């Protein structure tokens, strides 16, 4: 299920639009995840406030979107492009990779709420594949 | 037995009372067939499913999508015993239709996304949690009679 040229084009095209509201998308998706999948809160117990819209959630959402923007720019070689991030997640953060799927789903839902017209089934397909590929690249250094 | 909060019951009732079955049903099934193309294996007699446009415009897909969505009505009306409500349908999906139960989750994710697009900002994290919990119970019940 590797990314076709069509997928890459679709991802870049919509990302151009998404990046204009990147901070909001990131913060909302992360906030959504913490509410819908409470087990993910275990990674953020050190935050004073984990509620949607709080400062730590907004700051972290921005960080996550920065990582995804990097991934879009390295879409032709995600493994190499995300090596550093993979090492960070593997050795420092030690996030269970099952959570990548959870956050991906929440970002897809957020895209559907913010861009109902642009998030067509075909865009959904390409983004689902892209996030799966990003998750795989992020898990590269785990073991 | 599944415990539902007042918020969850109200949220599910609200979403389904405003549901546009003929829009959401077809959109959810079409999206599933497009995003997860291997699900097309169950619809060999549906005619043209060659590309996204064909799937989205296919009248059999539209009709079946509406049927599936209405199938959720019985769960909405029997939230305190969804498992029993779906015993027959579970047997049907297993014995007659031979549907891999993993597919229920795929369709349920697509339905979540279509409803999210419909509700926009009203599809808050809390609403999503209630909706996904409801669908998870339905999915579990539909897979219950497989052996």
Protein traits:
heterodimer, A: 143 residues, mainly alpha, Globin-like, 7 helices, 69% helix, 0% strand, B: 147 residues, 9 helices, globular
State the CATH topology of chain A: Globin-like
What is the CATH architecture assignment of chain B? Answer: Orthogonal Bundle
CATH names the topology of chain B as Globin-like
Quaternary: heterodimer
SSE blueprint:
The complex is a heterodimer of chains A (143) and B (147).
Chain A: H1 5-18, H2 22-36, H3 55-73, H4 78-81, H5 83-93, H6 98-114, H7 121-138
Helix pairs in contact in A: 1-7, 2-3, 2-6, 6-7
Chain B: H1 6-17, H2 21-35, H3 52-57, H4 59-71, H5 73-77, H6 82-85, H7 87-96, H8 102-119, H9 125-143
Helix pairs in contact in B: 1-9, 2-4, 2-8, 8-9
Verbal overview:
The complex is a heterodimer of chains A (143) and B (147). Chain A is mainly alpha-helical. Chain A has one domain (5-139): Globin-like. Chain A has helices spanning 5-18, 22-36, 55-73, 78-81, 83-93, 98-114, 121-138. In chain A, helix 2 (22-36) packs across helix 3 (55-73). Chain A starts with a helix and ends in a 5-residue tail after the last helix. The mean pLDDT of chain A is 96. Helices cover 69% and strands 0% of the residues of chain B. Chain B contains 9 helices and no strands. The longest helix of chain B is centred in the C-terminal third of the chain and has 19 residues, at 125-143. Chain B has one domain (6-146): Globin-like (Orthogonal Bundle). Chain B is mainly α and 147 residues long. The A-B interface holds A 31-36, 52, 105, 108-109, 112-114, 116, 119-122, 124-125, 128 and B 30-31, 34-35, 52, 55-56, 109, 112-114, 116-121, 123-126, 128-129, 132. Chain A: InterPro entries: Globin, Globin-like_sf, Globin/Proto, Hemoglobin_a-typ, Hemoglobin_oxygen_transport, Hemoglobin_pi. Chain A: Residues 2-143 form the Globin domain. Chain A: One of its GO terms (biological process) is hydrogen peroxide catabolic process.
